[in-house]
Each structure stands twice: as C-alpha cells, then as structure tokens.
Design a protein that fits this description.
Largest sheet: none
Number of domains: 1
Structural class: mainly alpha
Length: about 160
C-alpha cells in the first residue's frame, strides 16, 4: 500500500483488536506478576488509584498510533517488535516520571522514578507484550486472510465417490 493512502477498514479493525489484546494481556500479566512476585504494580502508595491506569492508557494510545501507521507501510517484523517494545517502555517511563513528579511534588523523582521502574518486571512485561502483539498484528495483515477455497477436512473430498 502507498503511504499516502488511508488504511482500509480492515487495518483499523486489526489495530483495534491488537490494542484490546494488548490491554487484556497487560492486565492479566500484571495480575500474575503481582501474585508471583508478591509486589504491587505501582509501588508508590501515594500515587493514587488512577496513576497506573493513566500510564498504561497513554502507552496503549502510542501503540495504537504505531499500529495504524505500520498497517499502511508494512515494515519488517523485527523492526516492528523492537520499535513497539521500546516505544511502550519509553512512554511508561516518561509519563510515569512526569506524572509521579507532579503528584509527589518532589523534583528528585525526575531521576528516581525512571531508575526504579526502568527494569521493573511490570514495565518490561508490558513492553515485550506490545512488541509481540505488534508483530502478530502485522503478521495477520501480511497473511491477507483470503484463500481461493474454504478449508476442507480430508474426509470432505468429493473426488472419492
């Protein structure tokens, strides 16, 4: 597809389904990691209940915009995985740092927050899942989803009459 043409409806649907899948996997992953590690997803107790959700929603919005663009341009799979993972990871750190610095009113959090969360299992899991989902969405798009004939089971062959 040319970069200047709008993406067809199938691309919008694929990007939307990809984001819904990412959100579901992130929520499930946060739950499992929290149980396994006996740790809070957002260890800053003074951040409030909306802070973590806001960080993930903004990261999801960035991933959605990337998916919409990639479904038009169709870059290579490895570049998609790495770019999506780094974009989500970086978005979580930037939004989290700015948000928590404003919430806590401590300027030192501009340095402390990203140090604490850069290698957090929760941050890394969300980023890696974003890369996998982005690569999967583009793989689905490349497959085209169209075949010449519907699939048939071996016993459905008509030539054995």
């Amino acid at each position: 597809m040319a970069a200047g043409r709008p993406a067809p409806m199938g691309a919008l649907l694929l990007a939307t389904l990809g984001i819904v899948t990412w959100f579901a996997l992130v929520i499930a992953g946060f739950g499992f990691l929290s149980l396994l590690l006996d740790a809070d997803v957002v260890p800053e107790s003074d951040a409030g209940p909306v802070f973590g959700t806001l960080v993930i929603v903004v990261a999801g919005a960035i991933l959605f915009m990337l998916l919409r663009r990639w479904l038009r341009t169709m870059p290579s799979g490895a570049a998609v995985f790495l770019t999506a993972a780094v974009a989500v990871w970086g978005t979580q750190l930037v939004i989290g740092t700015v948000g928590y610095t404003l919430i806590s009113a401590r300027l030192a959090e501009l340095l402390a927050y990203p140090i604490r969360h850069a290698i957090s299992p929760f941050t890394l899991m969300a980023a890696l899942v974003a890369g996998a989902v982005a690569a999967g969405v583009l793989a689905l798009r490349r497959s085209g989803g169209s075949v010449d004939a519907p699939p048939r089971w071996p016993w459905e062959n008509d030539d054995e009459t």
